[in-house]
TrEMBL record:
Parts forming coiled coils: none
Keyword Signal: yes
Taxon lineage: Bacteria, Pseudomonadati, Bacteroidota, Cytophagia, Cytophagales
SUPFAM superfamilies for the chain: alpha/beta-Hydrolases
MF terms in GO: hydrolase activity
A Pfam family that the UniProt record links to this protein: Hydrolase_4
Keywords attached to this entry: Hydrolase, Signal
Domain Serine aminopeptidase S33: 61-266
Keyword set includes Thylakoid: no
InterPro entries: AB_hydrolase_fold (IPR029058), Hydrolase_4 (IPR022742), MAG_DAG_Lipase (IPR051044)
Signal peptide: 1-17
Protein name per the record: Alpha-beta hydrolase superfamily lysophospholipase
């Protein structure tokens, strides 16, 4: 969705502002959600924005959560926001550059060349959250967002504006067959060095999207324009950026704040629709998540969720109730 130039100018802040402030206007979700467009420094495609979405608690609170979405995604999870608010958290979510509310018409959707490009968006969002009186902050990320905030948390050691890190099915490894990793992937990475704009279809199963959306087999209503069943092809620069980030994790990263990693107990690889899609992760290899999570140096906990889908908080009701119970019991100890 393209934001108008006028709104971009009206709701602009500097990414480096220590006391960052924004002006909010009504969000597309309605129901008390507000959004602010943040203009960031231009990159290799031109102008760049990110979008901060907020809904606060009825009674004053000094703790908050910042949610960072995954690939082919944007923030739409109203129930998640309301659960956090009920637990006394001011809720914030960011649509990263080139996603969702932040996509601009001259941009290739999802296009990046290094995951660190997202750090300015997260820095600014956290500065705003702190500037609005939140003393304790939980930094939460799903899938690619989970990988991103893991590296971000490591690189911000000693300068953290957050107090704990929650990872919901983090994308710690590309879910491609080992044969392709040994043959095709090295060729793609080599080509990406000189031709990062070359497109490549990841081949993500559209049935996962169908398992979520209310018009197909799921229970959730969101924009298929912003989160389609079939993710658009990525650039080779994106593949190289994600691969390099995952390689850094493989070598070990240190996170100074408590970390909770949640993932499903099993991965599924069905070619035709069945209710099996409601019982496991149809996007990532959960064994890889569990194994690579152990490369985090620090105070971390890993928990597998029986019957969890890829986005655990979009799982069936009993499962997501368990997920929320796990999150908030942990948060009571770490975000006081």
């Amino acid at each position: 969705m393209k934001n108008s130039l006028l709104l971009s100018l009206l709701f602009t802040i500097s990414a480096s502002a220590a006391d960052a402030q924004v002006t909010y206007f009504a969000d597309l979700m309605g129901k008390g959600f507000k959004q602010a467009t943040i203009v960031q420094p231009s990159d290799y495609e031109g102008s760049v924005t990110c979008t901060l979405v907020r809904k606060t608690t009825p009674d004053k609170s000094t703790k908050a959560v910042l949610y960072v979405h995954g690939f082919n995604d944007y923030f739409f999870q109203e129930e998640m926001a309301e659960r956090y608010i009920k637990e006394g958290f001011n809720f914030y979510a960011i649509d990263l550059r080139k996603y969702g509310r932040s996509w601009l018409s001259h941009q290739k959707i999802n296009n990046i060349r290094d995951l660190s490009e997202y750090y300015a968006d997260i820095d600014t969002a956290l500065a705003v959250i702190k500037g609005e009186g939140n003393e304790k902050v939980l930094l939460s990320g799903h899938s690619l967002g989970g990988l991103t905030i893991s590296l971000y948390a490591s690189e911000r050691a000693g300068k953290e504006k957050f107090d704990a890190v929650l990872l919901n099915s983090p994308m710690f490894a590309l879910n491609i067959k080992s044969g392709l990793k040994k043959t095709a992937l090295p060729l793609l990475l080599k080509r990406a060095e000189k031709h990062p704009e070359t497109t490549f279809d990841l081949g993500i199963n559209p049935l996962y999207g169908e398992s979520l959306h209310i018009t197909a087999h799921g229970e959730w209503s969101y924009s298929l324009g912003l989160k389609p069943f079939v993710a658009p092809p990525v650039n080779l620069g994106w593949i190289r950026a994600v691969y390099n980030a995952q390689e850094r994790l493989t070598q070990g990263i240190t996170i100074n704040k408590p970390v909770l990693v949640l993932h499903s107990t099993k991965s599924i690889d069905e070619k035709k629709w069945s209710d099996v899609f409601f019982t496991g992760d149809a996007v990532l290899n959960v064994e890889e998540i569990a194994r690579l999570s152990q490369n985090i140096v620090g105070q971390y906990s890993i928990q597998a969720v029986q019957g969890g889908m890829h986005d655990l908080i979009l799982s069936k009701q009993p499962v997501r109730d368990e997920v929320y119970s796990t999150i908030f019991n942990w948060a009571k100890r770490t975000v006081k």
